[in-house]
Amino acid sequence: MSARITKASLDQEDAQFLSFHLSNYKKEEVSEKPLLSDSDAAALAPYLTSQAVVVKSVLRRRRSTQNTTAGDTPQRRYNVLLFGDSLTAGWCGEDGYSEYHPYGLRIQKRFEEEGLDVEVTVSGVPGELCAHMEERLKRELEQPGKWYDWVIILGGTNDVFQGYSAWDIFESLKKLYALCSKHGARVLGITIPEFDLEEANKLDYQRRIVNEHLNVFNNSTTRNTYTLFLLDKFLPMHSLTPEQRKFFWNEDGMHPNEGGYDLMGDMIFDVIYKEGKWN
């Protein structure tokens, strides 16, 4: 296919484009290595500064009552929680943490197009570690009068940058999944996406090991409670041409741009719409 991708041609070529990169993704052998050195940690420190930002929003329009008549059975309302760090918050700005475009915007739009009454909640904390997410997730799940049919969890990039071992990151994610299941929500786990940051590229082996653990966990878990979406495979970074990469990824080498978040939303919606019961 042509290396030139435009917004006009993307819709027609989505399936071919993603299939092409999935089939050409070279799986490398990975193994555990020593954790982050002091010098590496110092180099990454500017990227890990704690930000006093919590992006939490409910992306839902007022229900239409135009076609509702007396005696109609009210449509069931569903609730979907998107939970994680800056990738969930949808950071895509270039000057601090000033601009957000969460992939939940596209998920909400797709539910509305299907005529479903779904409330999508975005809860993302830039810079947060999976190891520190458990209490915040617990508060989200235990809100009085609130329930979630699905919880979508995307985290781990910051843990990799901090030098946590792949096993520790995986164990932290499993605790989050178990907490959601305990509260009756179906879980969509998401693999850690690729990154291209000079100070952190030497840690990519840990990212890949975490994703391998998630794959094994997915294959041994009941399908109706947990599903895994391979974000690193379907929205790659390194296998894209420079022009393709500019269309999907921010120049910081860590976050998608608006086009990338929209594509994430479309793909993730397709997974939960297919896997869920929305009647």
From TrEMBL:
Stretches assigned to the SGNH hydrolase-type esterase domain: 82-263
InterPro entries: Ester_Hydrolysis_Enzymes, Lipase_GDSL_AS, SGNH_hydro, SGNH_hydro_sf
GO terms of molecular function: phosphatidylcholine lysophospholipase activity
Endpoints of the signal sequence: none
A Pfam family that the UniProt record links to this protein: Lipase_GDSL_2
Gene3D superfamilies: SGNH hydrolase
GO biological process, one term: lipid metabolic process
Protein name (record): 621_t:CDS:1
Species for this entry: Paraglomus brasilianum
